[in-house]
Every structure is written in structure tokens, then in C-alpha cells.
Amino acid sequence: MRLSFKIYGSVQGVGYRWFVKETAEKHSVAGWVRNALDGSVEGEAQGGVPALDGFLGELKTGHPWARVDKAETQEMLDREGPDKDFHIKPTV
Question: For 82, which of 24, 46, 88, 91 is 20 to 30 Å away at the CA?
């Protein structure tokens, strides 16, 4: 399963993207994350449903210095040739 996610709140300037990357690796989730110009953090994640559930749950509550106000997700079509790892992209 593949989905896009967007996390709103105090999530920039606190190491949140690195936290997302580490959390993805912990849950065996592939994809990417980046800061968005509106102050949110966005990305895509791919993995099994239990892995994605654990990943998203931890993103909402697991970072000690971030404050998550809202999290949005949307299911996507799987791409041909799934991502192999999780990486941080430049801010857009």
C-alpha cells in the first residue's frame, strides 16, 4: 500500500524529518519526506498496512519536541518498482 501524508503543527526546526526517516526505517516503510513552504511536513510512504499504521501512529505522538495539530493521509496507487528505502527530499 502507498499513501501520501501531510503533518501540520510545530514540525519544522525540531528534527522532525529525521524522526520521520528513523520511524520509517523502524517500521520497514519506504518513501520520502520533506518540509513544505506552508510550515508542514509532507511525504509518501509505502509498506504493509500494519507497518503503515504503526508508522503513522508514531508520527502523530512520538517526537518529543514537535506538536502535531493535524495529520492528513490519502491512499495512492502503487508505483511500478516500489521504493527500496526512505529518504529526505529538499524543501519545496
Answer: 91
Helices (DSSP H) in the chain: which residue ranges? Answer: 16-26, 49-61
Contact assessment for residue 59 and residue 5, using Cβ atoms and an 8 Å cutoff: yes
- Give the contacts of 76 (CB within 8 A, at least 6 positions apart): 2, 3, 4, 44
HSE, CB side, 13 Å, CA atoms: give it for residue 64: 0
- The residues assigned a catalytic role are 17, 35
